[in-house]
Amino acid sequence: MRLFVRSAVAVSICAVACTIIGLKVGDPPGQQMQTFAESFVASLDADQKAKAIMAYDSPARVDWHFIPKKSRKGLMIREMNTAQQTAALRLVRAALSEMGYDKTNKIMMNEKVLFELEGDKRNWDRDSGMYYLTLFGEPKNEGSWGMSFEGHHLSLNFVCRDGKMVDSTPQFFATNPATIMDEVSGPLGKGTRILKEEEDLAFELVRSLSGKKLETAMIADKAPAEIRFAGEAQPKVGKPEGISMGQLDPAGKQLLQDLVGVYVDAVADDIAAQRRELIQQSGWDNVYFAWAGATEPGIGHYYRVRGNTFLIEFVNTQPDASGNPANHIHAVWRDLTGDFDLPIE
């Protein structure tokens, strides 16, 4: 087990450099993904293809989750040789920004941190190679095909149609510990915070509020235990809660835009620009920020940001592997026009 963890971490670190070099910068994201998907498929044997490729209309395409599982859809990184691992991670990199891929890579490496911190108490395998790539349908210029890259604390889902990326949700990142408070081996040392901006910008925003504005933003004294709609194909939201951007002062508006931007910018630049354009079209003043729980680290806290076209949820209530309270983040971006390129029913 320990050998698997170390080798998989080494692969993921190497892949950062390899995948960035491998990008075809002039091509749009959908075309890049198709190119690298074709290369990945060509590298697989028949047994691997049987795991890695499913029908586009398979129910597994919308069956997503971030919890530890003994088995998942797709082909596990650990089941690939080095060349196949590089091909798989090039494909993932093509769908993401440099920042988004860096978070993905660190979340994978963080499994080694959990392996060390949990020691003999662990109930689950902690292995940076236990992330699974699945293709749905045939990558080509006509019609639709999808991709999922998923494992503990990570779920990335994409759809390409007629050569273009048309959906990039659900987008889920998480980390335990949120802040590494112990001395650990490997590249993620003490003090590492993989999802630092997602937490710090929100704290800065909520702390900037007072009086009636803070009262409007606060939706509960206690944070919920988990994000809503975890594992569900579509979020079914009600009316927005919290304070609208139109009610914020200029500094607050900028903080909220910066916070949303952290989630927006996880994907390839062209797709991030499309996300921003949709928000702009529906109006930033219609974006709402809501908070629940404590406004300081180490005590359970939660926020959500809701626009007409998107939903962000963030929760930090669980202890980390060493027992430090509220040091375990879950964060998600959902498409309110329909995740997985499917309409919300």
TrEMBL record:
Give a single Pfam family match: DUF3500
Q: Which superkingdom, per the lineage?
A: Bacteria
What is the organism of origin for this protein? Rubripirellula reticaptiva
Name of the protein described by the UniProt record: DUF3500 domain-containing protein
Q: InterPro entries, per this entry?
A: DUF3500
